[in-house]
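User: Batch of two.

Assistant: Item 1 of 2:
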Amino acid sequence: MKKVLFIFFLFFALSVQGQGLDSLRREALAGKLGEYFGAIVQEPLAVQAAEADFMIEAASDSLVRQFVAQWLYEHYLESSLMGAEGVAIHILDQWFLPGKVKMTSDMDFLNARIHAEFNRMSLVGEKAPGLAMETNDGQFVELYTGPDKGGAYRVLYFYDTDCAKCRIESILLRNMLNTESFPIEFYAVYAGDDRTSWDTYIKEKLVVDSPGVKVTHLWDPTLESDFQRKYGVIQTPRLFLIAPDGTILGRGLDTKGLYAMLHGIFDQVELTYGSKESEELFDNVFALEERPSKDDVMYISEYINANTLERGDTVMFRQLTGDLMYYLASKTGEGYKEGLSDLLENQIFSRGDVWKSQDDSLKVTGYAEILSDLLSKAVPGTVVPDLKLPGVLMTSKKSKEGTFRLKKLRGGENVVIFYTVGCPVCDAEKAAARSLVQEDPTAKVLMVNVDSIVENDPALADQLFKSFDLTSLPFILQTDKKGRILRRYISLQ
């Protein structure tokens, strides 16, 4: 869908180049921009910045390019998406400041430069700027001014005693911190210079009495720390969440947003995966299909995502997705394995915001990496490893024992069966292979005894296990005349 929107937008943008930009064309172009960038709003901000650059670059007409660049700058500047300001500043740095594109007015350009000056140091993902300030009892405190040795999560709250919104936010913050007892360091920074007003405010609005929260009250009446520019404190309140390593995780927060982020960090429930109950659940889910396809697995995965994570239930998403991963890993069919590959990519590796605890690393992401390594071998669309393997090659006319190159089987349909002796499923697949070559005179089937290779040629066995996922036998794959892998984990029955 996003590709279709992109192609349609690009076609539209190119079609208006050289025609001028009257109000109707501007409105239409803005609509297409809004449609496309709305469709990619879930993508990482770095991806969105790259897309913005591409859109601006694609507009060779100067008026169209100016309109697109200005629209995108304002779109990200005004966005409610946390961190979007960083994309706006990227566009300013990349296009407007070097003079590649001119803003629509000198006043807009001046405002953009001022905004960037007061915000670029405190964007999400950046290291928190250093501060040297004084506490309310006269001590000198330095934050982020040297090598950060890690430690607690920190909340940095800038406020003013004369700010009505700050009074409300301060009370909400105080109540939340006293109720939840998050293990954090809370730095409340008074942005003014009235000591008496400050002392009164602390006693009335910011009394935090929680065993998990370390509270420090700071101020800098002489403004020597340059906190206004470093943290964009043009107005108050300003609320930041900073990771133990000094990385800014959240900015422009309110108490509700901070509450949600802290819960996401500290409320990681330890879960158990792969229970008998979960196995029975997914047995019933997949019971309607004799051999579930990759699309069936993807549907279940996306259904879980839509009904848990997209509704804000992170714990249930982790439980069901983890259970599904363990379930698929225990299965041998093509649909299960290819569906597992998709699950790992789209619901685990790309969701570092969900799988982030030590428990997740041990039980989910670590195991997922092992599974991914196995699934990365002999991927459909790639050329089969050029190995010479001992085995029995069957055609409709004869069976021949010898050593054969996997890339040179040259049948209309090539099937390779890796089997182990004494395996009933392996025997059944070999019997199905004999029927296949009788029904299809162009087919060739190579049967490879893995036990024999392991016993007689350890070096070749090592190559074999590096090239294919042989954790469960039989392992069957199909190649074309040129040795390209068409399918794997298949059954001939």
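Item 2 of 2:
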Amino acid sequence: MRLLKGLRIALAALTANRLRAILAILGIVVGVAAVIVMMAVGEGARREVLGKIQALGTNLIIVSAGQVKNVAGRPQAVGSVTTLDLRDARAILDECSAVARVVPVQSRRMAVKSGTGTTNSTVVGAGEEFAAVRQFRAGAGRFFDADEVLGAQRVAVVGQTVLTNLDLRGGVVGETIRIGNVPFEVIGILERKGLNYAGVDEDDQIVIPISTALRRLFNVTHLNSLYLQSRDERSMALASAQVTELLRERHRIKPGLADDFMVQTQGEILATAQETGQTFSLLLGSVAGISLLVGGIGILALMVISVRERTREIGVRRAVGARQHDILLQFVMEATALSLLGGVAGIAIGLAGGVALSYATGWPTAVSPLAIALAFGVSAAIGVFFGAYPARRAARLDPIVALRAE
């Protein structure tokens, strides 16, 4: 009962000074809206990256030549190692029982020509099971088969970005393009995939048989990487351990020395991306939280001014029986009411702002219930925290001194 009475008095006091209350609330509104929008951007980016990692393939394990480190959240190869080759790929398939498929890969950027069109694209030499392991599909035509890999045929499957850069249209299957100075027949066009989790355009590539790439185009015998597929999700850890042990033995790496390759499971890539995404969201939320702090300072200033202006009112209330606790409760509730009203308005504006930002820029946004609860809870806590000092100051006023105030 006393709490409801204190709430009515607090709302009446705020209504009596509407403009001042609105100006104090604005800081909270802006702060909460900023937190909601920033966390929505971070969460949307995190979900998009996770979706792209899951789209890499099923039960995927990536073996990279040399070491791979995450720089600004993106994997980058460190050093140049030439020890990974086709014999390693065959040995893994023969000796690692938990591995179902192995796709050798060698790639590099090269000049590509067709008629009068010229571009630079990533040329990927891969085994015939590349499409199955990496979940690529041919939107037109087909992928090359085992016989074409064995015969080192000059056939290519082309990505959508390559077609655009060469100013080619859909009917290019059967046409000839030149990679470097070597002619290739286009036998298929990749379905659009977009950017992968590392920010690389997977449509800006041309896939050719690995044997053709090594013998006729790149003139090398080593590989960039191997794409492996474990027999099922439960055997991924076992497959990773078997591959690591086998490659260390084949590369004659002594105990205690670092590997000249890196094995990453899809789960490990996912965990790294989640950690990076959480850090990004936390950073954005922290930056936006500064405006909440500014809003809290505005409430503090308003309440200090309010205590000074209502000194006589406080004296009258004390004289008619109000206790220090009642005065304390009244001013804390006024500050909390300001924060909660600002929090509700800020959440509504933040939700609308997230949708508008996504529509205007094309950025993915996703507002989680946790972000809403966090913003609302922080706004309430700010009201209590910044209202505590002026409330205690009001409660401690001497009634006689307060009644004498003009």
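The chain has two domains: 2-51+273-404, 82-259.
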